[in-house]
Amino acid sequence: MLTASGQSKMMEKLFGAKASHGLYQRHHELDSWFANFVQKVVYDQIWPLGSLPLLTKIAATISVLATLKKQAQLHIHLQSFLRIGGDTNLLIQMFNLLEKKGYIDSASDFIQLLKRVKPDAGGSKAGFSALKPDDRMSSLVELAACLTRGDSDVSKGLMQGLLQKEVLTSGDIRAVLRQIMSYAGCPCSMNGFAWLLEVEKALDIKVLPQESNRELVPLSKMMVALYGEKEAEKVYERCHEVDPWFNGYVQRVIYDEIWALKPLNLIEKSLVTIVTLATLKREEQLQIHLKGYVHLGGHPNELRELFAFFVKENYLSSSQLLESYLDDMDASIKTIDGNSSTSVLTSRNIHIIKLAASIAQGGSKLIVDEHSKDGLTFAEIKAINIQAMTYAGIPRTMGKLAELACTQTETSDAVMPLQCKL
Predict the structure, then answer these.
(1) pTM of structure
(2) Of 130, 132, 152, 422, which alpha carbon lies 20 to 30 A from 31's?
(3) Do the beta carbons of residue 185 and residue 391 sit within 8 Å?
(4) What pLDDT, on a 0 to 100 scale, did the predictor assign at position 371?
(5) Are residues 384 and 315 in the same domain?
(6) How many domains would you assign to the chain?
């Protein structure tokens, strides 16, 4: 059993003892479960994975944060980059690369931020000032930004070129996909794994198939509850196909841990997930979760009403593509006795929808008071943030958790210890 006690050694290595302690305390102020998750899953289990140099992992993370324009989290990772052995010249060239490729609007904004960064004494040395990012690091930085944007054709083209030129290996790309998952969101990495699989097949790169081992990675009972056994089996096999490690994370962390958290019920969690995925335009995962919503007792007409609301609120420009996903569901729904359409736009659900969409958009609008006045408790608002975190990434959720920490008056719930071990 993983508990909330103890500070991550990897976090201390990245940020130094003083800064890491400050981050640990800050995460605890936001939410005890969130602090536990960051320590024990993100830093203790994901950051040590693979053979990429630590400096390269930090560079890929910086690329994601810059693309998302998350300056608070970016600041501490810039500090870490300098501490581990990089220098400002490397970072300036990375930002210039991201501007040239169109992933950030202006490198100068980030360079100004860099001027305010003071590294913890430990790794930064003046003698590194002449360093330039090599092809491998530059490629991983660009790829991380591209994947965060979610452009399939550009991402696949970039992967194919890098593999053909032998700048990166498939293992390098898989390593960066695992690294950026916590920051860009689980669907971003799943899409990347799927696109890489397509590229490997196109280039006739032999990837040894790995048999799924149900003893080591059992099918999550929560996944079965959400989708039904037949559909859950399909999702399990799809996740295993794109990457066996990713499937283990999905089963043990996302479904066994995060989907089991209280106080939201399953259909409310499903609603949060659908809103998040639709807002971020993560189509493959959205189609899966639409089926989950219907399995839980929802109706396609409720989802059509939801999508029309998205357009009205300017979360999407059009609902035509989303509605097309529902057409195939209608026939099967008609065979289910008693499953009739009701309005999804209750007062409570509208608060859930607006909060989840705001998290996915990464906006800074203060909305906690608005939602706590009518139907949502602070614990429920916090739970919506945690549920959305899986699909939108940690940086998009931290702002709302910080806002909530500033306004919360209720006593927080007891910590739910993490059970998972990747």
Answers:
(1) 0.90
(2) 422
(3) yes
(4) 52
(5) yes
(6) 3
